[in-house]
């Protein structure tokens, strides 16, 4: 099978994730969409590694996973902290930096 | 179609389905489950694309740890954290979807164009140098990418500390005693005692049935708040109530 199909699939998943980030209001769902975009990029890395016969792509995908895990931990802690003070997980609520 | 083609088309379409479910689910918990579904399918795709190590890491880290963390935070934030339908920027949704479609077309056409007729080397040779996929990745991590790998450990420790600092709440005041809590409850002027229990009358005694007040209307505050937030309130069947009244009056 041609791995370029996998790259196209990853492009589609990335676009769906981007639409989710733009459209949804709930901070947690937006965050999950970001995770989906990271996963789509990983899929492209894996497919490129296979096309080029080179394991570097898989190592980069591994590092992306590690960074994503760290990002999830800190991001969710921030969401919980904001929820505690504002009683809301909507991304439209925190607007103190607006003016 | 070969077996690999089948895996790609089935898992790939499931992954897209899960992604669409993530974007279009009304409730955040459903979105989280759709993402977990997508990630499992992506793991299958990794394994099908000669990355068994990454496939396993994907299942353990993403579906195992990350998504469970998401569900845990959803539990903390509450079940009523569904999206508001009010648009802060009016009419933002349609341009956003249009831009997303444009991005998809751009990526698919651009990348697809670049990849037409590109051959596939395959990883058999690269894997055979060290005797396997895991060994090959291990050699790269501990030789070429050693500094990045060490920096990663610092990143993980920083993230763990950051999460603890952010989520920790210092207690500024001493813990209130039971007596103080009781006084505060009465001084607040709201309902001091128990709220009415949910509808324990005649035929239903489930917690999703509102209590009936003497005049036959229902008491909303007798339903537990999470059930109200989910919209899981059983409608009171007034026909049944009247039947019971008749039996009572006989």
From TrEMBL, chain A:
Record bears the keyword Mitochondrion: no
Membrane topology classification: Multi-pass membrane protein
GO molecular function: oxidoreductase activity, acting on NAD(P)H
Compartment list: Membrane
GO biological process: ATP synthesis coupled electron transport
GO cellular component term, pick one: NADH dehydrogenase complex
PANTHER family (UniProt xref): NADH DEHYDROGENASE SUBUNIT 4L-RELATED, NADH-UBIQUINONE OXIDOREDUCTASE SUBUNIT ND4L
HAMAP family reported for this sequence: NDH1_NuoK
Record's protein name: Unannotated protein
Organism: freshwater metagenome
